[in-house]
Amino acid sequence: MVQENAPDFAQAVAKDLNKPKTEMYFAEIARRTSTRAPIVQRSLISAEKLEEWAKPAMVDVPDWQKPWAPKIYKNAKGVVLIIAPWNYPMTLSLQPLIGAIAAGCCAVLKPSEISPHYSALLATLTPRYLDSKAFRIVLGGVPETTKLLELQWDHIFYTGNSRVARIIATAAAKHLTPLTLELGGKCPVIVDPSTDIGIAAKRTLWGKAQNCGQVCVAPDYVLVPRSHQEAFVDALKAAYMQFFPDGCLASDSISRIVSPEHHSRLMKLLERTQGQVILGGKSEGLKMEMTVVKNVSANDSLMEGEIFGPILPIVPVDNLQDAIDFVRDRAHPLVLYAFTESAEFKDQILKGTLSGSLIFNDTFQQLAVNEIPLGGVGESGHGRQVLKYTFDEFSYERASIDLPKEAEPFIGMRYAPYTEENFKIMAAPAFMPIPE
User: Active-site positions?
Assistant: First the structure.
């Protein structure tokens, strides 16, 4: 479906987000040089690996239990609901669907009403490629989603913000429905002044520019020792001129803000900030410049919640330990980025913080590795996805044994009438010596 209709999908997302064709193929459809998120590659890998993922797992047991043939089956959970967002509409709707199909589930997929062109195209094409008795696309907004949440599902997979996640979790609790919540939050960037400041700034700005900052793994703010704030700002300006020599508003290499409501929210954040806007800050229609704000304090408007747009606050700190403390004192982020060559400082961050992912010396590049999961911790979500991890979300492990009649001599002591002799045999493990 994606291969045969790739130009139509790219055009639909361009209408919704003004997303550049290069970014659409690079991040969502398919590309030659990597298996980062693109759906074509992940569909093929899932098909190739499915037999391996789904085969029963044999377990290591004592010799006397081996005749029981203990194993663990991977079973489909059943009928699942996938609620997808608008910002990466193809990846974040079809990636969970691939996992659900691989696991053997039936699925209802609710794409976002905020990406209407993509959602309408998906609803038109899906019945041509998938059995409508097993897979359905439901269009609509809040009323339709509310109705869906009144039904009992075997699993709900939601990608979006924490406010809606709480509504979904409340609805799921009525039926004790298991959940995958792929959320977001404020993903910090810590910059060690001993690192290559130019590379750190360039890679941070590139990550922030993806989809105009409208992505859950976007760098949300930067923590840098105040003695090196100006050097980092200068490096950001240089990277900006490299990426957008004629400015963002004239560039075809950046998306736009998805809606007037989101645009208004972002501009109001800028109006309220006590920081100093040193780059960007202007907008034209729904297009908005990449904007850098320095000297941002912990209680600034830009630090109240996830920005989800092209605004990058720089929060100066006294030292790197203060940066770690700043992150630790807040909700656990989906991703923590850090630019450093110091093995000691990397270890400090690893041991001193919690985050869904920890990425050193780049942004976004965790999405290029199929063998590691994407998922949050605490308020940034729970559950995992990407290939086998998505398959596992929609599966459950079903334990099994098959006791032959020849096992009777080994289990006969469990039967009544109970005797002291049998008690000593069965209770012996309770009196095993404990190592010092």
Answer: 182, 216
